[in-house]
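INFO worker-7 received task bundle
INFO bundle size: 2
INFO processing item 0
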Amino acid sequence: MRKLQNFVTILKIGHLRGVFHFQIIFKTHKMTKNIQLVQTILKYTYGLIPIVAGLDKFTNILTNWEQYISSGFSNLLPFEAGTFMAIVGVIEIIAGILVFVRPKIGAYVVMAWLVGIAITLLLGGAYLDVAVRDIAMAIGAFTLAKLSEEI
């Protein structure tokens, strides 16, 4: 916002080039509006998707989430795979809510979560397409975190 105010000051001081300065102000204002729009879209995306995925860990409407757990990892669990996925669901719901409440922190949490899932899938050697998608989504979450930093 300070940069925009600086351009307004320049316009008032040097009106020999008023048209040129006016164009800079317009583009800066438009760019700020576009950044705010992108940030809002990313906030809703990375807030809602983890909440929906987390809730679905209890219903398996979207998919059977247990299929993503490798048999080796499943054997290490001290409880059933369904219980593990319920715990994962709660964590995802909390992460999604955190994106709405504290976008910068929440976005970093979602990003780390997605990278962790991708690494797990890559190490398991299965669902590589999902791993690649999760890395792309992690990049989007990182973008939201950076856009949410105070200037």
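INFO item 0 finished
INFO processing item 1
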Amino acid sequence: MSLGHTKGTVMTNATLTTSSEDKQCPDCMRINEVLSRVGDRWSVLVVISLAQYETLRFNELKRHLGISQRMLSLTLRELERDGLVKRTQYATIPPKVEYTLTAMGQSFREPVTALGYWALDNLAAIDRARTSFDKAHNKTHGKAHDKVKAG
């Protein structure tokens, strides 16, 4: 598997295989750690928004994304903790806080933007697949469910 990774840990097919002694590969565990944090939908959408508008205030992000205040606060805090977002607070009344991408956040821009475009390009196909799955799933489970109820 090649992710275009050029420094640090080298990802090879051997790295991704597991033996009976190693239940999980160490690289996969570390990747999971990072992706579980920065790969959630709100983090991705915040990064896309900041990549597009460069600097946004909290309420601007909230309006752009349609996200709850609590979820946006949690997401921004974690992105700041991970070094992807910089929070700048100004001593004004009312307080003014702005968010921008850090250098590391900027480096995350390309893969996140590609993911966003992929989602947009495949919406219709995903909708068709879901409809097909739901029809098949409901027919199968509907008949099984009816037999249980009748029995």
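INFO item 1 finished
INFO post-check item 1: Strands lie at 55-57, 85-90, 96-101.
INFO post-check item 1: The helical segments are 13-16, 26-38, 41-53, 58-65, 69-81, 103-150.
INFO worker-7 idle
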